[in-house]
Amino acid sequence: MRASLIQIAVDEGESVESRRRRAAALVREQAGADLVVLPELWTTGAFAFDAFQAAAETLDGPTYEAMAKAASDAGVWLHAGSIPECAPEGTVYNTSLVISPAGDLVASYRKIHRFGFDRGEAVLMGAGREPVTVPLPDTTLGLATCYDLRFPELFRSLVDAGAEILVVPAGWPERRRAHWTLLARARAVEDQAFVLACGTAGAHAGVPQAGHSIVVDPWGEVLAEAGHDEEVLTVEFDPAEVAATRERFPALKDRVLGLESPRH
């Protein structure tokens, strides 16, 4: 599998529509990849709290339309990062979109763990309730978003649902970049899965972004890591390594907590 993580820069001086056009062009340039990933809330910026309500859109809104066309043109599976979704009842969610090579919306995931400690996203957006996995032709994706990375129980549920590749779009701040790398590797090791963690460059509402998108294999080895600025990180790997790793070192079979007690 060939995956491309688009670490797009978010600049407050650039309009959302301009950034959509740029992102679509970058997706089209990845023709030949199997999977392309964009970051969290790249249309507005993850820390641009004041913009969430005004920029909120429906799942079939302008970001989906632009990304669906780009995915179809490139012939790729596209994790289009996340958008501020305006749900029918008026609640705004931090929602990820997964689009097929035909341009169809095949899955959406509302971020479960909202960041902010009673401020920002934590009070401005609703919380998702359901883990989401997405079957691809040769593997299964498990979806998480940014702050979710700190909650291993979500990733366990994704693995239990068959996930072999854990995709984590983010708007992670530079000041906690060490945690970003550490947690991505930890989730890969404990779940014996690939982790594709795609962040942003630039700054959101004055908050410098960490960049350093990263791809980690099931043994916790870093296969590729981006720098600080905007770039496309492309890596090739074999999803079959997940099953092979779990067979060679079957730690997941020894889980106790979270499993039903054996019957006597």
From TrEMBL:
**Keyword Mitochondrion among UniProt keywords:** no
Per UniProt, which keywords does this protein have? Hydrolase
Every copy of the CN hydrolase domain together lies at 1-239
Q: Which domain of life is it from?
A: Bacteria
Q: Which InterPro entries match?
A: C-N_Hydrolase, C-N_Hydrolase_sf, UPF0012_CS
The answer to whether the entry has keyword Hydrolase is yes
Pfam families assigned to the protein according to its UniProt record, in alphabetical order: CN_hydrolase (PF00795)
Extract the GO molecular function terms from the UniProt entry: hydrolase activity
Protein family (similarity comment): Belongs to the carbon-nitrogen hydrolase superfamily. NIT1/NIT2 family.
Name of the protein in its database record: Carbon-nitrogen family hydrolase
Q: Which organism is it from?
A: Streptomyces similanensis
